[in-house]
């Protein structure tokens, strides 16, 4: 019986070491990139941007958007903001592995967004929006790139081999066997400290090599094929506490993105808004095309949108230029300006938009 128990302990110890190595090679935090923070369905519902295209991108655990930051003669709190989160990624936090993701990828990329906006005409009415989004195609995501996976596995396998090497080194230097270590908590602690101290230099070098791989991947893959679908609804509350909300607007999006050469991307988007109240029901349909040129960190775009408003029985065209800038790891700025023309009554309007977008920086490996 004693031999059986010892054997089980040895196997459990080996399995634990193997499991730790396996977990290291598949943790999702090694595959997260600071791509452009995408548009959020809940934010689009607030109507702060004349463009109705929903910018697709890879799922982020948590993102935030704010708009209408300036007002009057100085800085004021933003009038519109929204947050988007991927609930299942957040629930798994640091323990989410590629194996888990592969089994339930569509579940993990489901995202929920919430947005609020103060009515510019009074200080009490508040608009509240709720949105849902799913990514059906994402060829720019590290998690879906088999070649990158092999590179990371190789780096992490080297790390696992070093752990085994330093474990054997500790046992030899101290004239111990794995049996001796298993039976003593003090010796196990001492061995782990020895291994951790030895591997510190490799860790620093590993992080550098991993970051180098990721930076190169971002520049080559920011414009790869993507397809997002989303829906949202908007309600109004007569007070700032968002009580007694009545939802009266519903929206559906589909956006496809494809690369154009090595430094360009084209987006083709569809959006349908349905409005309803006690006396009126109507829809607004938009078809939008946007072209990006540049790099992951700095890119400009041109956009054309045609829109049909059933209530006004009018057709609109929107032409705009803009840019997307990565200010710092996890912080993005989006700016655009253009002309919207009502072809039915021949009126034109100049419109502009600016927003800031935030997500968890790559350097903070929480998720």
From TrEMBL:
It comes from the Bacteria. Residues 1-19 form the signal peptide. Keywords: Signal. This is DUF5723 domain-containing protein.
């Amino acid at each position: 019986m004693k031999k059986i128990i010892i054997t089980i302990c040895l196997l459990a110890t080996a399995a634990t070491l193997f499991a730790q190595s396996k977990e290291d090679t598949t943790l999702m935090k090694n595959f997260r990139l600071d791509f452009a923070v995408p548009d959020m369905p809940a934010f689009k519902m607030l109507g702060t941007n004349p463009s109705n295209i929903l910018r697709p991108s890879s799922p982020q655990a948590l993102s935030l958007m704010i708009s209408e930051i300036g007002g009057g003669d100085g800085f004021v709190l933003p009038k519109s903001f929204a947050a988007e989160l991927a609930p299942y990624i957040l629930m798994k936090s640091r323990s989410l592995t590629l194996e888990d993701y592969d089994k339930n990828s569509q579940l993990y990329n489901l995202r929920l967004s919430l947005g609020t906006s103060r009515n510019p005409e009074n200080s009490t009415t508040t608009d509240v929006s709720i949105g849902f989004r799913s990514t059906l195609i994402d060829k720019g995501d590290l998690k879906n790139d088999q070649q990158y996976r092999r590179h990371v596995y190789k780096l992490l396998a080297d790390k696992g081999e070093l752990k085994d090497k330093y474990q054997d080194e500790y046992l030899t230097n101290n004239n111990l066997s794995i049996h001796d270590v298993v039976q003593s908590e003090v010796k196990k602690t001492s061995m782990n400290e020895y291994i951790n101290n030895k591997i510190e230099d490799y860790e620093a070098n590993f992080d550098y090599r991993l970051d180098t791989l990721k930076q190169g991947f971002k520049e080559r893959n920011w414009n790869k094929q993507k397809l997002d679908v989303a829906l949202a609804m908007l309600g109004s509350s007569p007070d700032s506490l968002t009580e007694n909300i009545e939802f009266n607007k519903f929206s559906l999006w589909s956006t496809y993105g494809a690369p154009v050469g090595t430094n360009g991307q084209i987006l083709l988007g569809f959006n349908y808004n349905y409005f309803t109240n006690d006396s009126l029901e109507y829809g607004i349909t938009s078809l939008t095309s946007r072209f990006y040129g540049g790099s992951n960190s700095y890119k400009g775009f041109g956009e054309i949108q045609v829109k049909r408003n059933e209530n006004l029985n009018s057709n609109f065209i929107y032409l705009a230029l803009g840019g997307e800038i990565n200010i710092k790891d996890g912080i993005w700025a989006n700016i655009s300006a253009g002309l919207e023309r009502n072809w039915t009554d021949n009126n034109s309007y100049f419109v502009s938009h600016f927003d800031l977008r935030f997500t968890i920086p790559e350097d903070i490996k929480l998720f």
